[in-house]
Amino acid sequence: MLNVKTLFVGQRVGKKAEVEVGSMDFEYGAGTEALYADQDSFNEGYRLRVHDLEGKLVPSKVVLHFGYIGDFNKVNAFGRMHRLGEINYVQVMAEKKLGKRFTASAEFDRLRGLNLIRNAAKVTLPDPWLVNDLRIETVARLNDGATAGWALHLVKTKNRLGSFNPGIYYSHLPTGVYRVGLAQALVNGDVYGTGKRIGVTAKRQVTKSFDVSAIITRKLEIEPGFRWRAQIVGRYQLADLLKRLP
């Protein structure tokens, strides 16, 4: 069965603003699914994005999102569209780009009564360095059992192997950050999981439109459950193929 994961409509407002409505992907800023929502999580709502802003003290992009997060067992977007009439999630995010090498984002989230602060920064380092992409991110729960987590990602993108990009990461996400009672209000990347984990990553750009990525992780705490996780994903961008169609 073919399931539609996302389905939304968007409208440009002038040259620097967009409005979106429907079932859509998350806005991560400079962060990742290691500490934030899994890329396969589900999110219905309304989003305003203002981008390409200028000024030293002005964010490059601002996002305001009202929506509903949940129904993690309903894969098809059509089965979740009725949630457009419900709001349990508010995201206010600002992102700033400083030149070509530095991007940072900060946001406040209100999710099912939880107050959350997320911050992230990504730095592009010179080609000869051992690491070319460095990303650090944090998340903090401010109420009802305050706790926090963080993650560090290091990737080598410029090397003699060309389009092969190896990396390593460490993440620490306490299970209570997104928990409301006995339920998870938000599920982060499934291969990352919760707790203290370390892992290796790799990405190979096979062609302009096709890439393969892999990740292997190990949980550092001795607890019940899977200590090792692995994932291999192939992704093909159809845009170029569709452009060549008559």
Report the strand count: 15
Structural domains: how many: 1
CATH-assigned fold name:
Porin
Mean pLDDT: 91
CATH superfamily: Porin
Q: What count of helical segments does DSSP give?
A: 1
**Biggest β-sheet: strands ordered side by side in the sheet:** 1-2-3-4-5-6-7-8-9-10-13-14-15
Q: Outline the biggest β-sheet.
A: 13 strands, antiparallel
CATH architecture: Beta Barrel
Oligomer class: single chain
Rg over CA atoms:
19 Å
- CATH top level is Mainly Beta
Description:
The strands form 2 sheets. Strands 1-2-3-4-5-6-7-8-9-10-13-14-15 form a 13-stranded antiparallel sheet, with no helix packed on it. With 246 residues, the chain is mostly beta strands. It has a single domain (7-243), classed as Beta Barrel (Porin). The radius of gyration is 19 Å and the shape is globular. It has one helix spanning 239-243, and strands spanning 7-13, 17-23, 43-50, 61-69, 89-98, 102-111, 114-124, 133-141, 147-155, 164-173, 179-180, 183-184, 195-205, 210-219, 228-236. Helix content is 2%, strand content 50%.
